[in-house]
Specification:
This protein is of the alpha/beta class and 452 residues long. 35% of the residues lie in helices and 16% in strands. The structure holds flavin-adenine dinucleotide and iron/sulfur cluster (SF4).
């Protein structure tokens, strides 16, 4: 335990974001860092609870009390070792995890001032890279080979663990680079892509082979099924949920990921033909979908120079404040979330249904929407949607559909083929995808160990 009284004397301090007037003009990471003294003080607040709910809440089973204590005592190397024992890529979760552990922290129950685990995690990892505590492992090979299909966080976590267990791992990725949604979904202002490159370089040095531009289909005829001792499918959720309202074909209506992936490619220096470029510059933008992907569209639209941005959501506005009484601690609160992108300015509306995309000469000009209400269903089940008032038109030259992704269906595969991450569980979080990748690596190891 750090300092037994620290949580009584020291308040939670977040590093916060760069000022809006500064960050809005570039795609650099918005989050700042605390200095070393302040970071250690934050780590000292961790009480090493008898029943640490943070372990339970973190899908990776990370143990914040252990690494927070080492951090408080200034042993950054030990802190990294403890963190890395459960988390293969803490530089990702340290930046973009919604910190399920902090919501379950006992200090969150008392004063809504939980420990700053996510930021601590990021600081520990950056120090470890800086100080050279992260070294290249050269595992002894066991003669078996494994193919991983998809280089998102799930595939990378599976590849990492299998490689360390001695398997010769080849990762097949349909894109031109690794990272999955870390690289082609999450904007650079949340996660700088050099952070992914740094980790991929390490994985390559440790012996993992990456094959890019390879779209693999796994079925009875796939060569890969016969060529490898085991196959891990980590292909994510490739199909975005569509909105088949009239006018969907108009120019200016796009899936959120079309914009986000393209913007990340542009920032990576990839040339996109002018006629294919999607841009919010000078436009009124409407984001349909009130979740995190929608929020990332808002931040991107601002940086591209939009005129205005509105986000609509068909469901009711979540409860404001730290806790929803219907969803109490230690569960992750389904309360209103205001992201750095929301803070940059946007109109947010709830209980809004989309009726029609309107256009002129094939080009989107606005969207007809209807305010609605949700009423209890007398027969039980899903509440009933009831229209309120008259339809209205929201002016928009660019619409971004951010309504989630369809859960993929899989055929029955041979026993040496395993599925993990979002491909197995539906769209979720990076930390869950990584946890699933690790669990699958353990299953593959158990399966192949019988045959070694
Ligand atoms: C815009 C956006 C923002 C997000 N922000 C956050 C956030 O801030 N925090 C958070 O925790 N989560 C966030 N998420 C969710 C998170 O990114 C995903 O849950 C996570 O990336 C899933 O990991 P995965 O490895 O299962 O799949 P993916 O990341 O989707 O990776 C799948 C990989 O498989 C490849 N692939 C697919 N099919 C094939 C094939 N046939 N052959 C070869 N390769 C193939 C794809 O190209 C991709 O590289 C966000 C998601 C989106 C869309
Ligand atoms: S990965 Fe996320 S939930 Fe787990 S300890 Fe880190 S911030 Fe908390």
């Amino acid at each position: 335990m750090g300092n037994p009284k620290a949580f009584l004397e020291i308040h939670r301090q977040e590093a916060g974001y760069r000022p809006i007037h500064d960050r809005i003009h570039d795609f650099g990471e918005v989050e700042q860092t605390l200095n070393t003294r302040e970071r250690k003080l934050q780590a000292s607040r961790c009480m090493d609870c008898g029943v640490p709910f943070c372990h339970w809440a973190c899908p990776l089973g990370n143990k914040p009390p252990e690494w927070n204590e080492a951090l408080y005592k200034g042993d950054w190397e030990l802190a990294y070792q403890l963190l890395n024992a459960t988390n293969p890529f803490p530089e990702f979760t340290g930046r973009i995890c919604p910190a399920l552990c902090e919501k379950a922290c006992v200090l969150n129950l008392i004063e809504h001032e939980p420990t700053t685990n996510r930021e601590d995690e990021c600081a520990i990892t950056e120090a470890a890279f800086r100080e050279g505590y992260i070294t290249v492992h050269h595992p002894q090979r066991n003669g078996k080979n494994v193919a991983v299909i998809g280089a998102g966080p799930a595939g990378l976590a599976a590849a990492h663990d299998l490689n360390l267990s001695g398997y010769q791992v080849t990762v097949f990725e349909k894109n031109e680079d690794a990272g999955g949604l870390l690289r082609y979904g999450i904007p650079n202002f949340k996660l700088n892509k050099a952070i992914i490159d740094r980790r991929i370089h390490l994985l390559e040095q440790e012996g993992i082979t990456f094959c890019y531009g390879k779209e693999i289909t796994v079925n009875d005829k796939s060569k890969i099924v016969n060529d490898f001792d085991a196959v891990v499918i980590a292909t994510g959720t490739p199909t975005a949920r569509n909105l088949n309202a009239p006018g969907r074909e108009l120019k200016g209506v796009h899936f959120a990921l079309d914009l986000l992936a393209q913007q990340n490619r542009v920032l990576a220096g990839i040339d996109i033909p002018k006629e294919e470029r999607i841009t919010a510059k000078g436009k009124d933008v409407l984001v349909i979908g009130g979740g995190d992907t929608g929020s990332d569209c808002i931040g991107t639209a601002h940086r591209q120079g939009c005129k205005s941005v509105t986000q609509i959501e068909i469901m009711p506005k979540p409860v404001e404040g730290p806790v929803d009484p219907n969803n109490p601690w230690p569960n992750y609160p389904r309360t209103l979330k205001t992201t750095s992108s929301h803070e940059e300015g946007c109109t947010r509306r709830w209980n809004i249904n989309t009726l029609e995309f309107l256009g002129k000469d094939g080009q989107l000009t606005g969207v007809k929407v209807q305010e609605i209400d949700w009423q209890p269903n007398p027969e039980g089940g899903r509440p009933i949607m009831v229209e309120k008032g008259e339809p209205e038109i929201i002016k928009a030259e660019l619409v971004l559909l951010a309504m989630g992704f369809l859960k993929p269906e899989h055929p029955e595969y041979p026993e040496h083929v395993f599925v993990c991450g979002d491909a197995a569980n539906g769209a979720s979080l990076v930390v869950r995808a990584m946890a699933s990748g690790k669990q699958t690596a353990a299953k593959v190891h158990a399966f192949l160990s019988k045959k070694i």
